Amino acid sequence: MPAFDAEQLRSDFPILTTEVAGKPLAYLDNGATSQKPKCVIDLIDRFYAEGNANIHRGVHFLSRTATEAYEEARRSIKASLNTPDSHELVFLRGATEGINLVTNGLEAQLQEGDEIVLTIMEHHANFVPWQVLAKRKGLKLHFVGIHDDGSLDLDAWKAAFNPRTRIAAFTHISNVLGTINPVTEMTAFAHEHGAQVLVDGAQALPHGPADLTAIGADFYVFSGHKVFAPDGIGVLVGSKEALNSFRPYQTGGDMIDRVSIDGTTFRDAPERFEAGTPNISGALGLAEAFRYLGEIDWSAAAKHEGHLADLATQELKALGNVRFFGTAENKTAIVSFLYDLAHPHDVATILDTEGVAVRDGHHCAQPLMDYLEVSATVRASFAFYNNEADVDAFMRGMHKAKRFFG
Fold first, then answer.
1. Integer Cα distance of 184 and 191 in angstroms
2. Does the pLDDT value for residue 1 go beyond 90?
3. I want to staple 385 with a disulfide (CB 3.0 to 4.6 A). Which of 10, 33, 269, 346 is the partner?
4. CATH hierarchy code of domain 41-293
5. Dihedrals φ, ψ of 112, to 5°?
6. Can you name the CATH fold of 6-30+297-405?
7. Where does the pLDDT of residue 2 fall: very low under 50, low under 70, confident under 90, or very high at 90 and above?
């Protein structure tokens, strides 16, 4: 594995040479979506230029080649994740569709009065589907809170379990706080209490590989666009037994076993949940992104990202009038804050004039915002390709905000 070199890796991302308002782009919105390396862009271009064909249903050369590439993408991603032999990998549009698929599939197994344990830090994608299911089936939801530093109140989370608990769903890393949850411990505890587990890994995989065998969850979901791959592609890894017990989430071509005028039978997972022509190029791009990420020294990358987040945090403290959200010791490189002299939208707008891209708003986590008693925050989220020049640009924008509003 080559030594970690942030500047060399940065050169792999064409968009980072862009200028905004005549200034170099400082892209600090990685929590919303990541940028794409040239190898991923080139592979997708090459597929459409040289290998485009539909899969699974053709005997001609292009169809055979595309089919093998698609299935090899599935195999390589499974290997990168150390997926358990008992689990299958389904290609979907993203983590959101994966969670909806699981809630749809589990509905038939749940009875009125059954309970689901969630955390207050969940993204709407891992909140609303369970809320809708609960209302439809008469289920009870437990929302577990956090400590002042943004870490999960693990004792309260464990206390929420009882004999009626059927499901525990929780994020691997909070998209607002950066908190890294102890997902392996949480999964083991939930299983000891007879609950199935879904882990939302959308924010975790951009910061390093996940060992799904070690984590042990029944279901793990993530989105390609956050992990340096195309949008419109994502993954649900789930127990074969559980997935094959689910009714199909959608029906159509390629997921059927036999169709007649008297009825239809369906294939097993993963094809059972990949109705119609899938996002073939997206799957290939996702596999290429995983190949690229597999060459990174993630221990060094984590230190680099953490250094940048710490640097930004210290300089914001020196600026004054800043409140931080998410200061747990075990967290990733996300800095969420309020500048008390200005609304988050105004701060983000001024930062944009310096070429700095951040996110402002509730970050699709309104229950967490309510819990924190704020309506929005500014979020700067770092990736391995960011550098100290990005932090400098960020702070120039913050000092401009101070001059304007202070």
1. 11
2. no
3. 10
4. 3.40.640.10
5. -50, 130
6. Aspartate Aminotransferase, domain 1 (3.90.1150)
7. confident
Task: Determine what percent of the chain falls in helix, strand and coil, rounding each to the nearest 5.
Answer: 45, 20, 35
CB within 8 Å of 135: residues ≥ 6 apart? none
As given in the structure block, the two tokens for residue 84 are 């358990």
pLDDT tens per residue, range 203-247 = 999 999 999 999 999 999 999 999 999 999 999 999 999 999 999
Secondary structure tally for the chain: helices H, strands E = 14, 17
Q: Write the CB contacts of 167 (distance below 8 Å, at least 6 apart in sequence).
A: 106, 110, 116, 117, 130, 195, 196, 197, 198
Q: Is 39 one of the annotated active-site residues of the chain?
A: no
Q: In terms of DSSP bridges, do strands 263-266 and 19-20 run parallel, antiparallel, or are they unpaired?
A: unpaired
How far is it, in rounded angstroms, from Cα 339 to Cα 231? 32
Tally Cβ neighbours within 10 Å of residue 63.
Answer: 16
Q: What is the pLDDT of residue 57?
A: 83
From 156, 275, 319, 364, active-site residue: 364
What are 57-69's pLDDT values in tens digits?
A: 899 999 999 999 9
pTM assigned to the model: 0.97
